[in-house]
Amino acid sequence: MARVDPAAPAGPRSGRVAPERVRQPGNRRTPLPHGSSSFALLAEVLLVGLVVAILSIPVLTILPALAAGVVHLRRHLDGRGDRVADLLRLFVVACRGVWLVSIAGVGAVLVLGFNIWLLRTAAADAFRLPGVASGVVLAALAVVLLRSAGGWRPGSAWWPAVRAAARRSRDDLRGTGMLLIALVLAGVIVWMLVPLALVVGGLLALAVLAVERHADGGSLAPTEGAFLTRTPTRTDTPDTPDTH
User: Fold this and answer.
1) 141 by DSSP, 3-state: which?
2) Count of alpha carbons within 13 Å of 241, Cβ hemisphere only?
3) What is the pTM of this model?
4) In angstroms, rounded to a whole number, what is the distance separating the alpha carbons of residues 17 and 15?
5) What pLDDT sits at residue 244?
6) Which of 106, 19, 21 minimizes the C-alpha distance to 61?
7) Fewest Cβ atoms closer than 10 Å to its Cβ: which of 14, 55, 143, 160?
8) 3-state class (DSSP) for residue 214
9) Strands (E), the chain
10) Given this model, what pLDDT does residue 199 score?
11) Which of helix, strand or coil describes residue 152?
12) Who contacts 134 (Cβ-Cβ below 8 Å, separation ≥6)?
């Protein structure tokens, strides 16, 4: 008969099943679920950053590229297929129906950025209040777009994702603050060394994924469906329906 540790809890407190951490030789557990490691995650983040940077060159594709990167990192942490081909396929799916959102987002960023730029001209005194207000709105818009990328799922519409992201940004002020810090750090990294812009996309995708999982109580996010070809990396779990 197996011994039962009296100090161990009878079951999960919240009804969620904790992600399994695979044991390595020497009876050590991996630091991340499903056999992933910190080094493997870093390599995946760098790869995602490079792919997101390339896919974002047309500018209007920044949002779907970032959304695909977030889903790709989620699949990696869930022990599911995480090939570059899967990431590209996710990007193609994310581009469906995103163009109005992208055009509106880029247009708003250009207008707000122009108002902020006026603060550095001779007309700074006249545009001080609009410039400061534009900076606040631009920061809020950036957070909403990041959370839209984090809340998007393959097959879902973009406008509902944006509306849901706006509500989450308002209700989860801690996560909003964390994303603002991530944006500032990303800007500092690029300012210090411009070529590091090639990895910023992966870092932002990881930050968005961390904030969304924290907002969900630390549970594993729902999987994204079976439209991608899965590969048996680490552990492969059945698809579960998207509840978001």
Assistant:
1) helix
2) 1
3) 0.73
4) 7
5) 41
6) 106
7) 14
8) helix
9) 23-24, 28-29
10) 92
11) coil
12) 111, 112, 113, 115, 116
Q: Which of 121, 64, 57 is nearest to 95 (CA)?
A: 64
State both tokens at 120: 């550095």
The set of residues, in sequence order, having a beta carbon less than 8 Å from that of 106 and lying 6+ positions away, is 59, 60
The CB density around residue 225, as the number of other CB atoms within 10 Å, is 15
Q: What is the pLDDT of residues 142-180, one digit of tens each?
A: 999 999 999 999 988 999 999 999 999 999 999 999 999
Count CB atoms within 10 A of the CB of residue 188.
10
Query: What is the per-residue pLDDT across 90-104, written as a single tens digit (0 to 9) for each?
Result: 999 999 999 999 999
The DSSP bridge pattern shows strands 28-29 and 23-24 to be antiparallel
Q: Please report, as a single letter, which amino acid is at residue 139.
A: A
% pLDDT > 70, the chain: 73
CA 140 centroid distance within chain? 16
End-to-end Cα spacing for the chain: 42
Pull the structure tokens for residue 31. 């630091």
Among candidate residues 232, 228, 212, 241, the one with its CA nearest the CA of residue 74: 212
Return the CA Rg of the chain: 20
Q: Is the dihedral of CA 148, 63, 227, 21 positive or negative?
A: negative
Residues 6+ apart with CB under 8 A from 50: 198, 199, 201, 202
